[in-house]
Amino acid sequence: MKAVLIPGDGIGKEISQSVVDITKAMNLDIEWVEYQAGAEYAAKTKEVFEPGLVDAIKEYKWALKGPTATPIGTGFRSVNVALRQKFATYANVRPIRSFKGIDSKYENIDLVMIRENTEDLYKGIEYMVGDDVAHGIKLITREASEKICRYAFEYAKANGRKKVTAIHKANIMKFTDGLFLECFRNVGKDYPEIEKQEVIIDNMCMQLVLRPETFDVLVAPNLYGDIVSDLCAGLVGGLGFAPSGNIGDEYRIYEAVHGSAPDIAGKGIANPSALLLAFALMLEALGQNDQANRLRDALSKVVEEGKIVTRDIGGHASTKEFTQAIIDRL
């Protein structure tokens, strides 16, 4: 099969090469078709996406994306947001798992953040009213809210998860978050075997820090999901091991969650783990569970041993050396 590979900005090219090398080493039937997108490409061409990228995703349905940079305050909108809205990948799924060998404050965390991916404040409806007032519209629809809540319950059901927690601020945002919460309650009635929980966003952040082990599947509107998913990554050691999948009815785009790290770009020392774990999620979705587990196990063992790992996790290995260590484990 063919799939689109988008290296992105900064360290994206280096960690994408790790995916290509491991695809070959595992003898997987995947041909990567590479396209460029992001700030670096825009600086050269004035275009955010390489011509043909959108059509390629439409044709092949599957994509894996490295980190892309987004200008703050000015310039083009996020590549991530643009792709999610273009291909209606309404569910952002981010598993959060403890990793042996990674220095973190918690052990045995295993939860999943499911975030609505297409609306809320990220719809980008904002404008100036005169020179001194900016308006932004928080858009929440019944259709999108019901869809993401049902996805969360179906995910829990399919993966043997016992509880789904809705994150909201309906005590203040009575119409928008109130609608989301109403949809959560209505959809939840179809899943009597799954425990339901509702937690206000600010309390949710505190509870995740105090007792993260009490949570299982989390579901949230776009903005809260974005914030909480990064908080969750911090519980298990940071974004270096945080994969993500953007799931739609027809298209799937998997990605590393971390940034483009321009300060180390081109030095060959980046940690490719997040993108490799995103690739494992993609393999799982393709029905290649054995191969996904094989990749995760090899990566986990290399990290746990700590002998050939990148600098961000206490080693001195280059990206290529770390990748080769995983290949040797495979």
TrEMBL record:
An annotated Gene Ontology molecular function: NAD binding
Keyword Transcription carried by entry: no
Keyword terms, alphabetized: Oxidoreductase
SUPFAM superfamilies (UniProt xref): Isocitrate/Isopropylmalate dehydrogenase-like
Any GO BP: isocitrate metabolic process
InterPro entries: IsoCit/isopropylmalate_DH_CS, IsoPropMal-DH-like_dom
Domain Isopropylmalate dehydrogenase-like: 2-326
Keyword Cytoplasm: no
Protein family (similarity comment): Belongs to the isocitrate and isopropylmalate dehydrogenases family.
Entry protein name: Isocitrate/isopropylmalate family dehydrogenase
Native species: Faecalibacillus intestinalis
Upper lineage: Bacteria, Bacillati, Bacillota, Erysipelotrichia, Erysipelotrichales
